[in-house]
Amino acid sequence: MARSSRIFTCIFFLSLMLLPSLVRAQTLTQTVRGKVTDQDSRMPLLGVNVVIVGSQPFLGGSSNEQGQFRIENVPVGRITVKISYLGYEEKLLSNLLITTGKETVLELELQESLIGMDEVVIRADQNKSRITNEMALVSARGFTVEETKRYAGSFNDPARMVSGYAGVTGDASGDNAIIVRGNSPKGIQWRLEGIDIPNPNHFSDEGATGGPINALNSIMLADSEFYTGAFAPEFGNALSGVFDMRLRKGNNEEREYSASIGILGTEATMEGPFKKGGGSSYLLNYRYSTLTMLNDLGLVNFGGIPKYQDLSFKVHVPTKFIGTFSLFGLGGKSSIVEEEFAEEEEDRLLEKGDYKANMGVLGITQYWPLGSKTFLQNSVSLSQNGSGFQGYEPNDQDVLEELYDSRLDKNTIKGASTLNHKINARHNLQIGFIYTHHYFNFYNQYLDKETQEFVIDQNNRGEAGHYQSFISWKYRPLEKLSFVSGVHVHGTTLNSDLYIEPRASMRLAFKPKQAFTAGFGIHGKMESLTNYFSIIPDETGTGAMLNRNIGFSKAIHYVTGYENQLGDNLYFKAEVYYQRLYNIPIENREGSSYSLINQADWFTDRILVNRGTGRNLGLELTLERYFTDSYYFLATASLYDSKYEGMDGIERNTMFNGNYAGNLLLGKEFKLKTEGEKKKVIGINSKVTLSGGRRFTPINMEESLAKGKTIGFEDRAFSGRGDDVFFINMAVSYRIDRYRTSQELKLDIQNLTNHAAKIAPYYNDTTGEVKYLTQLSLLPVLMYTVHF
User: Fold this and answer.
1) I want to staple 29 with a disulfide (CB 3.0 to 4.6 A). Which of 73, 469, 557, 644 is the partner?
2) How many other C-beta atoms are found inside a 10 Å radius of the C-beta of residue 588?
């Protein structure tokens, strides 16, 4: 976590000139087009009406046999789109942002109505808890690309954006760790295109789920979803949350380009058809660290330059007989050299660390319709993630001497197949199979200062498999009542345990604008391979892999919720939850307080047994005004309690038990005077957050001095508490639309008041002092983007 703080202290401002316009004056318009399908069967719908609400003159169109529609000459700005079709529930998309630089391409799904065609009563629905995944009825939230870009402090990073949701807190030091309902960040599952992937953050380690900078740029994303509990049966190997991201399709008619430069990177995006009228498309984005470029040019000169680059792409290819194929990929490389100097002698080097990390995933998916009501979804992926660290300290002759050398590498092959069958408007069935196989190589050595010899404490090479299957059934007995039930079954090749996890949820719209939801589920997660294959020294000093047979950590989720559409644009939601955690690996030693429930990364040095327990309970409130009339707000509040028990049987706070969190997000756009050939908009967005401090174990200075590392009083585990975290984020953007070109200059400031909460203490071996990890300081990020 200290690495994240160091990376974000490399702050600078960039000044850019706005590009001159070379176009003639005219009314600025854009094309809105897309495709409409049945939500359950994914089959295209013919004759769907798609209209721009309130347009003068009237703008609209209808879908053809392929479900495709097109609306030309839509004025630039924000619009509301209404989609209606006889026998289906109406859909309303509010305040879509239309710009000159990019066509707006929509992928729309409609749900069949249970009421007879002569009885249909249509109501618009903007409820963001109603997401694309029809099997998810509780604890789910959809988000758009525009929200990711709009929220202050998100830096166009979806991982930072979700910290504003109820029940979710981030890491105040600047890491992208996501804490859901008091659970460890490692309980999160990252997914891309329906496939779970390695942690997509730069500067991350195997087994961890955070990192200061996400390798996936929001410009690549389609509308995506985030889940905080009682997941649908299809989701396995996740304990606390699921981040389900999807890549958008490239424009299959026009070539479009984007370029941007800012503190977090210089990047370029391109998309378009492979050939006109072919239907296939590509989308490609590449980003390189701006600080690295400036350093290479000699324009900046300071230590600890964070170096990183990433590439993501998607190729979309429809075929005539075997469905639609998508080839996608995401990769990132990062490195940083950290140096610490003495406070009294700024030129005296105390320690140096060289850190490297990389991740990548390459996958192909197939959507294969097998009839008007059945389709098959297949996928195969290859992924890799790894990290390495080398640490140095000067010896008595002031010559750097290597003290640490570690490497964590993992390669994964994954295959999945899901059959979806729509029996009728009331029943929908989903059956799936997933197999994952990991190959890994973990290595760590350190210099014993007493013997001056290197000790290899980890040297593990091997493989492990994880198999999963699920069945999910959605039943709608009434128009306003839905049930989802099913079971997820999974296990690992490391032992013979088989975990059967039933799931059930329901949603009842008992009044036109109010609904009650409830969900139940048993969820299990395979621990990180670094824990299964940790070499644990015994009393004789001989090491062995004593944790290979530990089982999955398990949790039972109970959730109830209430939703109320208070107005056309105002929405309220409350959820109460209880999670009972069990089968948690804890140290197999009488009187020990150690539990993996508090671990975030790296190896364990304890012999483990699945006898630990825990509990999380809480209340979450959300009040949201959707973006309309040029402004929005989102207010969330979370009250929660997170406890665990180790072998000592004492109930203690978990590391992540902050007890409370609150967020207020506000935003407004101001339209400036239009000068014919260009349209100008200023946007102001803010976010205010207050959250309870993280728990920590008080440091045993005597033991820390003796062993040269942080050692805590385990009988007082997590009895200490860091400061409450408070910050204000502010973002100001200036957007100019011209003919076929859109430009935006944005200043996004994190921690405007430079609040400096103390998060947790740690022992600094080089100085022999206790220091504190602190909240990420004031961080202004300037970015300029052009679409053409």
Assistant:
1) 73
2) 16
